[in-house]
Structure formats: structure tokens, C-alpha cells
Amino acid sequence: MDDAGEPLSGGDRAAGFEVAWVQEGVEVRRPLADVAEVAFEEVAPVREFPSYRGQRHFPGLYWAATMLRHVGFESWLERDHAIAMDFDPRVTGFASQPFWLFWTSAEGVRLSHAPDYFARRADGSAVVVDCRPEGRRNPRDLAKFAGTQAACEGVGWDYQLVGEIDRVRVANLRWLAGFRHPRFGGAGLTEAVEAAFVVPGPLVGQAAQVADPIRVLPVVFHLLWCGRLAADLSRPLGDHSLVSRVEG
Description:
The protein is of the alpha+beta class. It contains six helices and 13 strands. The strands form four sheets. Strands 2-1-6-7 form a four-stranded antiparallel β-sheet, with helices on one face. A four-stranded mixed β-sheet has the order 5-8-9-10, sandwiched between helices. β6 (100-104) and β7 form a beta hairpin. The model is unreliable at 3-12 (pLDDT under 50).
């Protein structure tokens, strides 16, 4: 998961919040304090992803290798963060539009918000994610984001308000995501490819030592995606990118 989340202020204010989610096709609504153990990373979206002519966003479905299922998104930004979560070895599952959060502001205004993602980490911790470019965060939205963070703090979840991912890193992640499916780990080449990069070397040059790069490179990219090989993703991936095997 990308760590570029922007922290917002807020205290332990679980009281006064309610959560609604879909469970076996039925909406369930409970006080926030009662839902800390719900597996929101497995729930269905609480609302549809609209698609219509002329809309500003680009909704769709992203197939997540982490869970072997589709996750919805409403914009390219959300799609990019879905890719980043799918790539993050700490994340064991995530869901889009996982629940509605309801609360009343200090001014007595009734508010509601459906966060973009809920993700579970391998250590059992959780993070709620909202995706919004910095230039498109208006006061009303910021109030909802702040309320959402306060709710998350009340039940021990992390909260991240994220914007654009670094353009080089996200370009690399998009490319590697094209090789995320397990089928790219086959062809009987996995062990040979890993062995070829025990000594770090240039991506294409080392791949060519195994077999025809046309056959080998998809396996290299899949292993980079899986974290069994490593490269500096802050720089553009290319023929001469230094790649190494990850020990352990």
C-alpha cells in the first residue's frame, strides 16, 4: 500500500457513528463500536459504480491477484491505488466502497460517507483509504474525510487520504500489473529465472541467459510483481534496470 497518505486530525470519537454494509445481499446497520471485527475486506460494495456518457470519471473493475477477484473503482486514481494495494505484500485483502458511515457534525448536520477502500494487512491491522487529488478536495469533502478519520481512530483502524502516486512508480506498477496473473509464473522457468538474478544484473541481459527473452521476460515481470525479484521502482523499468533475487 502506498504510504503517501495525508494524516488528518481527529480523536477517539467512535460514539455517534453508525456503519452500514451489505452482508449476504442484505444491508446491515450497526454502531461503529460494534463492527471492529467485521471482515470488511470481503464485503460487496454498498453502492453501484455508475457509468454514463459524459461523466468525468472512468469506472471499472480491477482483477486483484491478492484475492483472485474483481474490485470496483470509480476513477483512474482509484484504479492506481487498487494496483498499489494489490502489489503491497502487507495487504491480504481489500474491498471497494465497503460501507456507509453515518454521523452528525458538531453543527448538527447529518453526514454520510462511503470510503473508497478498506484493506486488511497480514498483521491483522486495517486501513481505510480515500482517494482524491489534492486540487479537488473541497471543504465539504474535507469535513467528511476528517470525520472518517475520527471514526477509524475510534475502532483502531488506520486512515489514509491519498492523491496521485509518483508518476514513475505508478507507471512501473501499471506495467507489472499486466503480469500479475499466476499464469505468468509458469512455463517451468521460475526457478531458473530466480537463479539467474542471484547476482544482480540488467533485466534483459540476465533474462537472455535463461532462454529467449520473449519467453523469459513475462516470468521476470511476474516475479517482480510477486516480490520474489526486486528492482528500483522509483526509476523507469528498462532493459538495463538492475534486478536481483529477494532472499527468504
